Amino acid sequence: MFNPRGVAIIGASRKPGKIGHEILKNIIEYGYKGEIYPINPKADEILGKKVYKSILEVPGTVDLAIIVIPAKFVAEVLEECGKKGVKAVAVISSGFGEVGKHDMEEEIVEISKKYGMRLLGPNIFGLFYAPTQLNATFGPKDILQGNIAFITQSGALGIALMGWTILENIGLSAIVSVGNKADIDDDDLLEYFSKDEKTKIILIYMEGVKNGPRFIKIAKEVTKNKPIIVLKAGRSKRGAMAAASHTGSLAGSDTIYSAAFKQTGILRAMNVAEAFDWARAIAELPPPEGEDTIIITNGGGVGVMATDACEDYNVKLMNLPEDLAQEFRKYMPPFGSVKNPIDLTGQASEKEFAGALKTALKDDRIHAVILLYCQTAITDPNSLADAIINVIKENGKTKPLVISMVGGKECAEAMKKLNLKGLPAYPIPERAVSSLGAYMKWARYIGKI
Ligand code: ACO
After folding, report:
1. The pTM is what?
2. Helices 272-284 & 429-445 angle (0-180, nearest 10)
3. Span 143-284: which CATH code?
4. Which of 21, 37, 40, 205 to mutate to test the pocket of ligand 1 (most atoms within 8 A of CB)?
């Protein structure tokens, strides 16, 4: 499914704006290198590609078929896919279990099984896989590549978040829309991504799982080497009802889900921003080797707020030994503080920040760093971002470093620069702390710290 030699788009439409047209366009324009076979009985050529009347007419190998025709015709083309020797099908079409047509859903699963094919969906927006440059979705074209595999049970939310990750400069290794999960479920994908070199972290938007015991068994194995973040919706009574009519999922008791996540070391995020904040940090940073964390800041207030957040998210602030405190004193005026938060004071320039950061990175007693900046006229955010990037260039990313820059549009630009360099930066300190806290929680679960 992710490394196909050839892809057929069954229902590739001639008309721009139709789903079958847009998927074909994305596959071509994102640069997929394998063979592309549009299938449509009424067309000869679409977007410069030769069109086949049926998949059975395709001369080459087709490993993956994307099916974009109305639900009632899907079973018939699945039979043809099976005869052609297709390995996996992604059924975009809606109109199956989610609207009560369970018999139709069972039928397509049966046909797939008969031919040894795996089925993704139905009721999905497609899939994206960075290593093969395969964007078989009708979402945005220019997905940023990175190390986060994103599995989503919600289609519209998934597509919306694809756009949002581009805006937020978050790189993805894969996106998989699982829809009704008639065959391929989260656990199958967890198994795959746990071995995928490009993926460092797996993020799931979930409304329900089909096979709880199998999910738990696999998640337990996967979290030993890769963190999993789950955004589980349908927590409330009404939310569960909404999930049932959305993807036909049984949202189940939230207490049971929470317990299962806890037992398997899954990090449960409560909203989208939190999920991607954590994913960004975990995807970009080395895991912590210990608990001892310091805050370096030029602002007392943000330091205090971050200190509170450290308690909320279980991040341990260390007491600095005297020799280390002396080192940090070099980068602050006499009225600064080394009590952790290390307050360089409002007069700190990028030089003081860089000196303190270098000290923190070099000393093995410090395991993680939270760097907080409040915009002042003394230090330009862009110069500070450059200084941080240089320190990391010289010293390496040896320990987790999360950054927060509080201020105006110059801060937003500086943070974009940092994020594009793989240095997680957030507009408020609590988000930086919460991201580090999530990483610490996982490291604790696997016994690393
Ligand atoms: N083999 C190949 N091509 C065929 C076949 C066939 N057996 N039958 C029809 N086609 C062609 C059609 O001629 C058409 O091409 P054309 O536009 O050039 O004439 C094309 O395939 C599509 O067929 P249509 O009948 O026009 O179907 P339409 O595009 O209107 O709808 C679709 C198909 C998109 C699958 C629709 O039935 C559907 O399920 N839509 C919902 C999809 C969705 O939202 N999925 C969940 C996503 S997640 C979210 O919520 C965003």
Report:
1. 0.95
2. 60
3. 3.40.50.261
4. 40
